[in-house]
Amino acid sequence: MTQAVAVREPAQDAAGRRFERIQQLVEEYGASRSALIPILQKAQEEYRYLPEEILTFIATALDLPPSTVFGVATFYAQFSLEPVGKYVIKVCDGTACHVRKNQALISSLRSRLGLKEGQKTTPDMRYTLEIVSCIGACALAPAVVINDRVYGQMTADKMKAVLDEIERVEAAAAGDGKEEQ
Amino acid sequence: MTTAVLGAALSSPADLIALKKRALQALESGCTRLVVCGGTGCTSNGSRQVLDALNAELAARGVPLVADLLEEHPDGAVRAGFGGCSGFCEVGPIVRVFPANFFYVRVRPQDAAAIVERTVLNGEPVEHLLFSDEATGERFATRDEIPFYREQAGVVLADCGVIEPEDIRQYIAHEGYRALASCLFGMTPEDVVREVTDAGLRGRGGGGFPTGRKWELTRRSEASKKYIICNADEGDPGAFMDRSILEGNPHAVLEGMAIAGYAVGADEGYIYCRAEYPLAVQRLRVAIRQAEEARLLGERILGSSFDFRIHIKEGAGAFVCGEETALISSIEGRRGMPSPKPPFPAQSGLFGMPTVVNNVETLANVPRIILNGAGWFRSVGVPSSPGTKVFALTGDVVNTGLIEVPMGATLKDVVFKIGGGIRNGRKFKTVQIGGPSGGCLTEEHLDLALDYDSLRSVGAMVGSGGLVVMDDSTCMVEVARFFMQFTQSESCGKCVLCREGTRRMLEILEKITSGRGTVDDVGLLEEVAIAVRDGSLCGLGKTAPNPVLSTLRYFRDEYLAHVVDGVCPAGACQAFRHYSIDPEKCKGCTLCAKKCPVGAISGELKQPHTIDPQTCVRCGVCLDVCRLGAVVA
Ligand SMILES: Cc1cc2nc3c(=O)[nH]c(=O)nc-3n(C[C@H](O)[C@H](O)[C@H](O)COP(=O)(O)O)c2cc1C
Ligand code: FES
Predict the structure, then answer these.
(1) Model confidence at B432: pLDDT above 90
(2) What is the CATH number of domain A15-75?
(3) For residue B25, how many other CB atoms are within 10 A of its CB?
């Protein structure tokens, strides 16, 4: 939602509003070092990734060197410094899922999304594919998480059905958008 | 879902006992309870829709619903709500019925009508929802009759799936917070530490360090401020014990933390929970709020002079943050890198103050120990490792899920009696225990007792409790490579041996699995592994070589087969596969030739095709597309 609004605004106003929001977070969590990770988490929740100017702004607000903030943001796997797609698909490659042969699932996803080796997000910014280690649904291996929803006992066929459904919802939404205009 | 409706805060132990009586009565008599599993596994399988369907069906049939447990309700009223994980995720969504104790598996929303008609209105089980043994077809009405549960013990998980975690009164009905009250009003901090020491409780987070000793060290440290940290980082892939405890019975962990706080003189606690566990975090937030409202956390707990507050810190995705010193620096807002010990957290931990770091399961054991006494705890398990252990049983086993067994149960019981043996009629090969820091157990260990010391004696460890069963199609070199890839990417990079050593080991393992390894590589691998084990700073590096060392110890011939004979005995490593086409079966449909990405297959239409081994990259596409089974690997 936030993103959609921000796109239509002049860039400067959008940045100003972002900084304002970060300022609120700093007030909420306190301008202390131990508030850094929660603030980064909240900021990422809001913007879905951590743009450089946000990191620098957080550094200033907490009175920390930007290198420290970048150091922390790059250390933890949760933080993304690049924009991510609307649907973040996390395929678990933890031990239990690996043993239940999830490799076919991963390769079929890659080819369906048309992602090349090393590429994570589709050019239209609809999907990001991440390979993660264990989401704690091991008894239902292989497991996949799309945004916050967990899917257990996944197969290439089930995955296809889920993606088809997303595509259907997206197509319907695009249709509605046109009617409104 | 119930919000805390307590009426008033509890300002004395007598208030707690009075509430317990009321809650227990409400829970056990006068109403039927339908507890739908609300754990991660079952919710992903649609248990939310099952709960909605049940409530809708109950309303449609005019069955009076119990909206609030403590309010008056007519006879025959029903309460349907979300419980925690019962462990048998494989057959979820699970619905349990109390007091009849029926155990329904694979429940779908369309089963709601039958459950209401037969079970709620007529008190009978719904046959087709009962668990049935695939081999014999025998059906089991109650949980304890099911083979998966027969060999299990219930200490930590006893209430998971029985009570609703988002209603503190149900926990209180099951003796909740009574242990804390006994501590505050009947025991000195020294008494509490002594009880835990006498119980012989050892840390369930992997190390097995005696909890009582850790508490005693912290209690004796002089400081103006002390902390309790609950380690809920659970980074070991293939393990989800802590997740299920937090989702199914969060108050047990909170109570354990408060008792620890009283014992060592801390008034503040942190729960460091993995960011990958949003449901656990949500349940914890609800639980903390309800406990504060009830005055079971916060200031002057139950009217005593003891204060204890708990905060939640969400992790940000780094395996090494499960290590206690790294975890502490992460809470402080730093990169989660371990620091050398001593000083131990008991001396100088969070913000430089004495700190107890305990695992979720360790803390969940504490209230039970205080309630039932050290002697009772020691009567379960084996003398050197008393109590139970929760394991996550996964992989190529028939019944996967969460299990709790007395310490010292044998591997055979766990894999074959509880787990039901190997899936798809294959053969047992190995169990990987303790995740990337652990080791493998083989057929010769089937009679081995699962406890701290027995496992250490064979080069494995309890670890966090992940048990991943693997069948005979598993290549052990590939398993070692898989774990090394994990530890290599999770190495924080602080010390050279771990940072560089894991990278070198991974390179060698990749070389072997891709068919380029030599005998010398195996020797070098072992040498590097020993150096990394002996020279790394923290537990991550020290244990990273374990999968390598333990597979070398028990499956050296498999390594040698790769480098000397040029074969992967399990047939798992793609590089060793030789694809060919059986001319008897091939009908010359040309499908494989069309799909081959490198054009290695040739042949005339309606004539048998052939694969050129020089061009073939062994991707296996031909095997997948051939409908006649003519491609052999
Ligand atoms: C690399 C590494 C990862 C660890 N991960 C965890 C973890 O996820 N959960 C946990 O409780 N302990 C973990 N530990 C062990 C902790 O350092 C610590 O020993 C434990 O939390 C102490 O609690 P306990 O005595 O109750 O087991 C890990 C240790 C290492 C070296
Ligand atoms: S290993 Fe995939 S969810 Fe745990």
Answers:
(1) yes
(2) 1.10.10
(3) 13
